[in-house]
Amino acid sequence: MLAKSILGGDFITAEEIMVARPGVVYSPEQIEQLASTLPSEDVLRSLKSGGYGLMPQPPSAFSLLDVRAIEAPLFYTPTGGWYEKQLFASTNKTGAGWLAIRKTPVNGSTNKSWEEQNKLLSGFEIVPSAAEMSWFITTFYKVRGIRLFEKVYVRCSDIDSGGSHVDVGLFDVWGLDVFSSWDSKRLAFLGLASARKF
Fold first, then answer.
1. Structural domain boundaries enclosing 14
2. How many domains does the chain have?
3. Which of 23, 26, 86, 145 has the greatest number of CB atoms lying within 10 Å of its CB?
4. What digits encode the pLDDT tens for the residues 28-73?
5. Beta bridge partners of 179
6. What is the distance between the alpha carbons of residues 80 and 90, in angstroms, rounded to a whole number?
7. What is the pTM of this model?
């Protein structure tokens, strides 16, 4: 497969997800649709050079809380938590098709405010939601055994009830953390998440 030959372990298939996450099931029609909508060779090569991983979105739209429910021990707060009753955690959901996420914060995005970070995005990049980031990070770990964003948080597109953007990361042995910080904050351990537009 072309995607595997270009991206190697950074490419994850629906079949691999179903093996690693038995509660997640893609229909034959969804698998066929994914196969027919793979990015072009040029895009795949740009994903490789940009440090992205590529995997299917969940088989149905998942919120952050839905992603946590698949395997709660992968989260620092497996139940409850400050975000459980936040609107973004239940209403902002993943999309359909392929999901390409940069495996590290946007280059040069730490120690910057939200406004400063967004100026670093290219025209092909968008900021993913916390649901998409948590799906990507936990699924990459389940399939590849690699903890992405182990020592850093990244800002996502979601906004909490206080008007601040939501951060995810610090995915160490204690689990993936969901955090929130003022948009004006500049922190050495807080960068910006990036997804590739298709």
1. 2-196
2. 1
3. 86
4. 999 999 999 999 999 999 999 999 999 999 999 999 999 999 999 9
5. 167
6. 13
7. 0.97
